[in-house]
Amino acid sequence: MIFFIELLVSFFLVVGAFFAMAGSIGSYRLPDFFSRLHGPTKSTTLGVGSMAIASAIYFSFHGEGISFHEVLITLFLFITAPVSAHFLAKAALHQGLHKNKAALPPKGEKETGPQI
Amino acid sequence: MPAYRKSPIPGNRWLPHPLMTLVLAIIWLLLVNTITFGHLLLGTLLGIAIPWFTNRFWPERPKISKPFLLFRFFFITFVTDVIVANITVVRLFLLPDISRLRPRFLEIPLDTQDPMVITILASVISLTPGTVSAEVSDDRQTLIVHGLDVADEALAIQTIKTRYEAPLKEIFSC
Amino acid sequence: MLSIAIPVAFAMLTAAQLLNLYRLLKGPTLLDRILALDTMYIDAIAMFILTGVYFRSAVYFEAALIIAVMGFIGTVATSKFLMRGDILE
Q1: What's the pTM value of the predicted model, to 2 decimals?
Q2: Over the range B17-31, which residues count as b (16 or more CB within 10 Å of their CB) and which as e?
Q3: Residues of B at the A interface (Cβ-Cβ below 8 Å)?
Q4: Which CATH number fits domain C2-84: 2.60.40, 1.10.287, 1.10.1200, 1.10.3210?
Q5: ipTM reported for the complex, 2 dp
């Protein structure tokens, strides 16, 4: 395989995996639900989309002929991620998770969210 | 419903949604991952049959008055903003002191009542600048948005309105 | 190049899945768990794609697409259930 293509594929794969990991780190570290929602909606979507594009480039130059069907996954994720985030946020508003805005607790203290 | 009156691409009884036909055909070709004459034919057939059978569910057509602006909005503004916003958000996630973040709810007054524009606006601002759309009020007047790190509330609302809502309103002409 | 990039990407995705698993087990609310599960679905898609590149096989694409569809429907159905106590209205 051409060196440049391999470099491009590797770049997209590693950057995508990094963004996916950053999204999970966000959902691990942040203190309240609405802030945690940001990680999976943005970073993870972009990360996995970039990995799908890397796969499309790889198979286009490696397999038989052009292969673009991984773009479908990217498109699908970019369309559905805001929708599911909106649904989750709506459900959280409905359950009143925004009322404990003291949800920035000092370190080591237990969160005061309603236990459902 | 001013945005749905008529479309620049005319649809008739047998071809109710020309844009949807095109998109379905392209999706079919992507799904089978080959471009042969047979699959082109089958994709076109599916693209005609599916809108025809499901026409009762969406009788209106979206009115795109400026296709070029739509193209520019999605391929330049949207793509660059997604990448920039992600780098910003990742930097916020990896801050050593996470309690410096200022999460806050914003209320964005909407200038349009068109459901299509509101849907696209909500999706775009969920994906772009450190905000997630949470709720549309029942009268479609305000969009409630959660921002991860908001320094200036008025400035953030102004940015969203000028950068995303104005072009979308212009594209769908309402 | 790829022989370095693929293991690095796999390690990062594994770390992501472990962090998601922590959030899934800890909670504290049900919505946090749903969010963690949704993220796990999306990371699983990434792992499938990466496996496909590693084995140079295109058969993993279909599995990834189906996981994407099912994950989305599962998330929407559960959050709708929490919102109204009813999935179909």
Answers
A1: 0.82
A2: bbebbeebbebbbbe
A3: 27, 30-34, 82-83, 85-86, 89-90, 92-94, 98-99, 101, 103, 105, 122-124, 126-127, 130, 132-135, 144, 146, 148
A4: 1.10.287
A5: 0.85
